[in-house]
Every structure is written in C-alpha cells, then in structure tokens.
Amino acid sequence: MEFDKKEAEIVNRAIQGWEDESRISKELAAELRGSYSVRNANVDAIAIYALISAVSCGLLAFGALVLDEKWIELLRKRWGFSENIVGILFTAVAGLFVYLAKRRLSKTKGAKISHEVYNIAIILTVAIAITYWTRGLLDGPGNYALPLLFAALAYGGIAIFLRSTLLWVAAVIALAGWWGAQTHYWSGGGFRFMGMNYPLRMTVFGLAVWASSLIIGKIPSMAFMRDVTYTVGLILFLIAGWTLSIFGNYADYEAWKLLKQSDFWFWALGFTLILAGMLYYAFQYKQETLRDLCLVFFLLNIYTRYFEYFWDRTNAGIFFALLALSFWFVAKKAEQWRGKTAG
C-alpha cells in the first residue's frame, strides 16, 4: 500500500499513539509500519506535468489540423463524402475509442489521470461526429441548441459507462451551452427569457446543477460524480452570480454602458450577502470546497466593487497594498487550516 508523505505521517502518528497507549504490541506496530510505503512525490509531479503537456500538445494538434487546416472538409470535398458519411465515420471512431477505453480501464484500474487524458480523444471525436450529423440532418436557421443537447447526452452516457469525471464535466458544460442557446431560441433571438437576461439564466442553471449533486449522490451508478457535480455547479453558480452583480438583470449592453454602476447596487449587495451566508455555513459545518470557492469569490467581489465605486478616488498604491495584505491573510489562514487538518 502506498501513501503520500502527508498521509504516511498521519498513519505513522496513529500507530505510534496506539503503541504508546499499549493498545498494540511493538511487533504489531513494526509490522504495520512495514505494510505501507511512501509514494515518491517527485515522480507523481513529473507524471502530472507530462500528462498536462500531452493534453496541451494534443489540443494544439487538434486545433491546427481541424480548425486551421480544415483537413476534414478538404478530404470530404475531395472524395465527395456527404456530411452524414463523415458523421458515421467519426461515430465509428468514437465508438472504437470508447471500447478501447473500457478495455483499458478493466486492465489498469489505478491510472486514473492517464485514463482521463485518453478520454479527451473521445470528447473531440464525439464533438466532430455530432457536428457533422446535425449539419447533415438538420436544416435549421443556425440553432445550436440541439447539437449541444446531443453532445451533453452523449458525454453523460459515456461518462457513466466509463466512470469518467472528465466526460461528466464536458456533459455539464455542453448542457450549459444548450441552456443558453435554447433559451435564446425560445425567446425569439432576444436577450431575455421569462424576464431573465443571460447572467440570471446561468445563475439559475448553476444553482440547478449544484443542487442536482444531492440527487446524483443517491443513485448508485452515478454516485462517483456527486463531488464533481457539486464543484462544477457551485463554480457555475458563483461565476454567473458575480456577472449578475455587475450587469444586473439588464438585457441591453449599449444602454448598460451609459448607466452608473451604482444603479446596480442591490445586485452587488445581494451577491455579497449570499456569499457571506455561504461562507458562514461552510465554516460552521466544515465544508472545505464551499469555503475555498466562496473565499475566492468573496475577494473577487470586493475587488470588483472597488473598481466599480472607488477606482478613481483611491491611490493605486494603497489599493495594491491592500491587495497584497488580503492575499497574505488568505495564505496565513490556509496554513492554519492545513495545520488543524494535519493535527
């Protein structure tokens, strides 16, 4: 059994405590200490950096080949393939990748990061397949909602099949895109849907995704996605809420630029109060993810309000000194929380 350095220290302290209290013999303590090893953190770091580099190079290669050179279109026109044929071909390729990923998963259960990197190929091929299928079968006036919905369903189904959190994140992002495009379509091309502008609509969507983690956690086949759904939904909710605190429920950008930011003070106050309430709850019930994200957005909220109301009235040196102080305070608190956790 392998532990990282921090986990090994905790286990070692527990064994030492049991030995000191005579709950276990010295022989058993020695046997327990020999039953685990400390993972090489440097090797892990190198592996992670190498995988990040592989992902980056893969995405750059995909962009260079597909987006810049448009080689698929060149080959399609040269060989006279219809868009439906290209959709069928990439569906087959995506199916092959899913099959290989499933077989790979059953053979190597521990390499989660490399599995997720491999799943990027599935995300890209599914996206291309859906793009060509919808271009070939749908004859709509530029409505991107259906392709995004199909992508969300495809990614979600494959994520459950492969138990992939990365594919599930892709499904949630695609669903967010569908929500924005579909509400735009339902509103007849306007910027309001049921009286809500884009930031307010996305705030509602983020809240729905965040709340859905409670339901997902109770479904056995989807329980492994509860934490990532919670985190992604919370991030979407906070980003949309922060945007809402700036623009309010205003749908005309040109008219918004003519208004004073103080006209939206109640949206800013509402977002601040919500963040404060969430922070209180997070500290009270030791919700670490909620605490950390809310702290980041609370600071972002403070700086946003500064730029809105006080940028022209405050010395820049004082502002950046306060900024440095606040980051120092956050770093200090983080060290204290880490010390308490380790203790």
From TrEMBL:
Annotated coiled-coil segments of the chain: none
Keyword Transit peptide: no
Keywords: Membrane, Transmembrane, Transmembrane helix
Transmembrane feature ranges: 46-67, 79-101, 113-132, 144-162, 167-186, 198-216, 228-248, 264-283, 313-331
Superkingdom, natural source: Bacteria
Stated name of the protein: DUF2157 domain-containing protein
Source organism: Dyadobacter beijingensis
Taxonomy of the source species: Bacteria, Pseudomonadati, Bacteroidota, Cytophagia, Cytophagales
